[in-house]
Amino acid sequence: MSNSPTLTNWHPATWAGRPAAQQPTYADGLALQRAVASLSRLPPLVVSWEVEALTAKLAQAQRGEQFLLQGGDCAESFEDCESDNIARRLKILLQMSLVLLQGLKKPIVRVGRFAGQYAKPRSADTETRDGITLPSYRGDNVNRPGFTPADREPDPQLLLRGYERSALTLNFVRALIDGGFADLHHPEYWDLGFLHHAPLRDAYQQIVDSIAESMDFFESMSGQRVHAASRVDFYTSHEGLHLLSEQAQTRYIERQKRWYNLSTHMPWIGMRTANIDGAHVEYFRGISNPIGVKVGASMSAEWLQELIQALNPQNQPGRLTFIHRFGIKDIEKRLPDMIHAVRATGSQVLWVCDPMHGNTETTAGGVKTRRFDNILGEVEAAFRIHREEGSMLGGVHIELTGEDVTECTGGARGLTENDLARAYRSQVDPRLNAEQALELAMLIARRAGAGYRPGKAPRLG
Ligand code: PEP
Ligand code: CO
Fold it and tell me: What spacing in Å lies between the alpha carbon of 231 and ligand 1's midpoint?
């Protein structure tokens, strides 16, 4: 991206001249201004050379040389900013990446949905319960999930609390990784206490053993230690939704002569805010980070082409990731046209499948859930359709947690709707628990690694 031109008709606030969807309404404008001003003086959470390093890796992923694993909570919560939770989430992402590395035989780019995933788009501005209507919960950066007028009042101070928690999270993640938490020489540290399903545990153990064996073999043959294996890279991402706070973290880097959003490595535009004339596209076009855009069934081929024109007119490698989330019922119908539309522009994107957001359903009892089979089915369809169309699926985007929650049904332990009440903790979308997430990674690795074979799923174990 080093030769990207500086945009002359853009600065971090030009978005304010466009319609901005999904922004909260604050009662006290002065308090909001003060909070945003404080935020803009605080140091950045990430630095531009890390952002550039991620762009380079995503460019490799576009060429099929790496694979993106992006995952984490739908919405992080302030309450969950504590050590066990962060460590467990990091661990499951690392374990999934190990499994994918072994199965796909290529390096995995790890991007967390964390350290800033605190603002949520909502389908309605208000929520009504028992005849009482209050503003919708929009994430811990904006208001609180409880159902009282005080909880739901947008509070500008929460932007600062969210920034601080992002910094605390990232600090802990960086320390764990620097301290050897993810050292491939010690995969036995990556324990599987959460895995209750024995065949899954055995299958995972085999993968870990085979990696350890290959590493031993290489090291004894070459007489060298595989240094690259003693540390892994981890990047952060969140939906760049709350534009005042994103703007406050946008900095001009003199050395690079470009603007960056330094609150995260890879912000993305959600499906509800991807209007071509909207404020979000205007804001995103001027920052130099690699960016994602969610692509849903309601988007047209022309819309995608316009997004490419607006967000990556110079066709810079690694810059643009399209995260499609059609759902199992629409992917066959919609993905081929999208691939053709992008190809017609001559521009490169990284194609990633989010098999979560198009597969949300509500049970008869009113609980939001997703079925493991639909999630797996959409990822499999994505691999196959890209292959059939001469394109390539370069990553997956998953909502998951390291906790033993019961929010999605199915998986090796066969969770049913009756299990949902037991440990349903998400304030927003249902996540895969650690066991389901690892199983998904194993199934992706097996099938993608072996080439797609239609038919019945191979059984694990
Ligand atoms: C999300 O990723 O949590 C989300 C809201 O996704 P989408 O914009 O694809 O609906
Ligand atoms: Co979500």
Answer: 31
- Please tell me the total count of domains within the chain: 1
Residues 433 and 92: their CA atoms lie apart, in Å, by 9
Q: Report how far residue 69's alpha carbon sits from residue 57's, in angstroms, rounded to the nearest whole number.
A: 12
pLDDT of the residue at 221: 78
Residue 461 within any structural domain of the chain: no
Residue 292 lies in a domain: yes
259 Cα–ligand 2 center, Å: 28
What DSSP character marks residue 6? Answer: P
**Is 358 close to ligand 1, i.e. is its CB under 6 Å away?**
no
**Would you say residue 7 lies in a domain?**
no
Would residue 350 be called left, alpha or beta, if left means φ above 0 and alpha means ψ between -120 and 50 degrees?
Answer: beta
- Each residue of 353-397: pLDDT tens digit? 999 999 999 999 999 999 999 999 999 999 999 999 999 999 999
Report the percentage of the chain scoring pLDDT > 90: 80
Domain that holds residue 193: 14-450
pLDDT digits (tens, 9 = 90+) for 438-449: 999 999 998 775
Q: Is 270 in the pocket of ligand 1 (CB under 6 A)?
A: yes
What pTM was computed for the model?
0.94
Nearest CA to ligand 1 atom 4: 270
The CATH number of the domain holding residue 136 is: 3.20.20.70
Distance CA 69, CA 111 (A): 6
Domain-located, residue 138: yes
CA–centroid distance, 357 to ligand 1, in Å, is: 6
Question: Among 117, 239, 368, which is best to mutate for testing ligand 1, by the most ligand atoms less than 8 A from CB?
Answer: 239
Residue 271 Cβ contacting ligand 1 at under 6 Å: yes
